[in-house]
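Re: that chain you flagged

S.,

Sorry for the slow reply, it's been a week of failed gels. I finally had a moment to sit down with the sequence you sent. For the record, here it is as I used it:
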Amino acid sequence: MRRLAQFLSVTCCAALGSFLLLAEHPSHAMPTACGTKLVEQTPYLCPTEQVWELRRGRLGLSDSLTCCARAGVCDAPARRDATPSEPIIMRLAVHVMGGSDGTFPAGVDAAAVDAQIETLRHAFAPYAIGFEVTSLRFHADDAFMCLPAYSPFNRLWVRALNAMKLEYADDTESSLNLFVACQELGFAGTILGLATFPWDPEATTPRGGVWINAAFFGDGQLTAVHEIGHALGLWHTHRGVSETSGCDDPCAEGVHPATDRSADTTGDFCKDTPATPVNFRCEAPRGSDCAGVAWGHTDPANYMGYGPDSCLSHFSPEQALRMHCWSRDARAGQLRFLEPRVAAVQQRPASTAPVPPEVRARSRTVAVSAARVADVRRGVVRQGLASEGVVALTVVDAAGRPAAHVTLVAEWSGSTSSTLLAQTGRDGRVQLRSPGSSAPAPRWTLTLKSLLRPDGTRIATRAPLLRVVVEPQH
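Prediction finished late last night. Pasting the structure tokens below so you have them in one place:
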């Protein structure tokens, strides 16, 4: 578990907000707080929400909006739930900051960038969101290789971050800019990353984008998944508990069932994410809500919580809808919409992620016009406190040879649901994973709807090509 910062505070318009405000407007006084919740001994910090609360003050919104006021149409549950979930591709412009001597922090090189992008694709693919890199640039600039240390008592790091963005941001209307730079370690620790919410007026300007601390960037690192979740419209899962002013805060959230519609307008605006205090462990938190109800089972494996990377595994269905809604509403220019005949999006090939031993083998072949699906295996694996359905298969051509770089369009339904994009590796293999489920006896149906050639043309039109039920085997 990452524990670089030992004395950070998670605040809503308090210490962090005040010094960030002074960073941009030194003559301003501290804004009126919309809520403060201190968390002692915080292992690390993602201040995306706190920066937004500051921005609201700068935009003159503090007096007219409460902490849980809607930021736009996608905060309306009906609009969120009506959002189409057709596949989308987010364009990324990646900037890696290095020194004039040719060195780059934490060994971040082109291979590390490729590995991080594959990690992003793997995490977002179950929710029909893909990524393509429109540009990758390595900048030799000593001034921005490492940001100054985080401190609640000076504004050096935020000045450097803004200056870096203004200097190097590129084509921000058409690509989400992703910056990678280290940060010096100070007495108050370090920040892992920072994103700009899509409803922020600066989201698609040079001052928007995402910054990831180089120490938490690369193969298998999930900080970028968390921060891009913010950039696509998601709050922390603990927003309604640990980022409010207390029980009377209009955004405060208590223990509730996943069907409680009131939870769509408090906390993180998703009723299917359980209320939770900030939680750094892969287990249910201790304690109770304002009504004295024990937290019980929460969802520490959610990407938008503060669990360790080894625990994180999924977004919720309503979080996925929020990302699709906010992306289309506020970042449409940064998207490429994947139509049936458009080139395929890549996902990590199954050959780099072996099928877990608990996935039981079952052979089945489905004939299509120029290829067939063979050697289908299915099973359920555990990821933290959640379970995921897994289907592994091989796509071969009419002669029985592995069909490489074929894109599968599939749908999961049942305990959790999503539209999935996945691409076969050179060996024709691919592994399809469902979104995680906390149900005690999860059950999914995977429906393979179509196969696309590398140029985006459809191999087969008969649907479904494959339908298989996945559930625990006893």
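What I noticed first: The two ends are 33 Å apart (CA to CA).

Talk soon,
D.
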